[in-house]
Amino acid sequence: MEHTEVLVHPVERPMDMVAGNVVGRVVGRVVGRVVDGVADGAGHPGETTPPDPLARLRAAAEARRAAGLGRALRPRTPDHDGLLDLASNDYLGLSRDERLVEAAVRAARAWGTGSTGSRLVTGTTTLHADLEDRLRGFTGAARALVFSSGYLANLAAVATLGAGGLVVSDAGNHASLIDGCRLSRARVAVTPHKDADAVDKALAGRAEEHALVVTDAVFSVEGDLAPLRELHEVAVRHGALLLVDEAHSLGVVGERGQGAVHAAGLAGHPSVVITVTLSKALGSQGGGVLAAPEVVDTLVDAGRAFIFDTGLAPSSAAAALAALDIVSDHPDLPGQARRHASLLARAAEERGLPATTPAAAVVPVVLGPPEAALGAAAVFAEHGVRAGCFRPPSVPPGLSCLRLTARANLGSDDLAVIGRALTAVAEMKVTV
Description:
Its EC number is 2.3.1.47. InterPro entries: Aminotrans_II_pyridoxalP_BS, Aminotransferase_I/II_large, AON_synthase_class-II, PyrdxlP-dep_Trfase, PyrdxlP-dep_Trfase_major, PyrdxlP-dep_Trfase_small. There is one protein chain. The chain is of the alpha/beta class. About 40% of the residues lie in helices and about 15% in strands. It has 16 helices and eleven strands. β3 (about 165-170), α7 (about 175-185) and β4 (about 185-190) form a beta-alpha-beta unit. The protein is globular. The chain starts with 14 loop residues before the first helix and ends with a helix.
């Protein structure tokens, strides 16, 4: 394999593969109507018409719809169209908390609506510096660097730290980590889900001078926890960095919500790189990398997704700071989110629906084909609940699911409504 070749993650295979090559066949038929430069409907023999560059896109969209994989944007109202929200990543229920809203409003009045430039020009404010210091202190990391999104934090960290080496990536990793692998132009070894022995073998057989092990802490669809201690031991033994994406664990995992790395006793270890998002448990927007000074300095100097992006809006930085204050002052919030997730999983299991014990706030209910997941989401909506519906390529074929996300502020009435919706889905499942 060429050094720059990147293996395709099973959950991120091209859409024509997901749809059983349907897309490829349909596109081929449409584009194939233009033969030897002569298009259907040409005025005279030998007269050429340029091929339609949008034909393949229309054909691919048609094939996705036929396979039940079409998507559409559905704008919502501030109150989620009157539905109980079980689809967002607002795990602690802070996104509409008045303390965050007021902090954001004060920042917007003081700083304006945007950061006005990249972090290296005018996009670093005192709020950014304060937020980096707070994130560092909360997670136990040596340094922190704030990005405008968690996606870009992952792109920058993986692409920059993995460049020219070996990247070992879990098969269940989020798309942002996978895209970082691709941008790194490193050799990428995709290992089976949560398999530390496979990571050990991949590192032991490497010829590259440096290596990066990449994993989610809590996986975004499965909701399970990576074996961080085992992965760290393997990484240290082979002189590799371990990058852990805490998108779904910061604010939820650990006694005080300080994340899975902290809970595993690895906080501040120089070989551990943490990436985070501010848009889930912290109810704001943005992302960050928490790591040793050498890592942060490298990203500032060479991380293209950091250097060439406009800095996070000051209002978002202020909201994230307010959220960290709340989580620090109310250490019971992470436990409430986890308890509610366990209640959701138990309710699904009691009704014969497959659900695993959640490590954080994500509870997948696997239903199989895309049509079943879409139907279940519609049933939930009929019962007044908005549930996440995940289909390929977000999940492998045959594993389409409802993705239920617990919140710390769910009440007993909310849980009762969810229980009735799960009962209706269980009854529907027999006929799907």
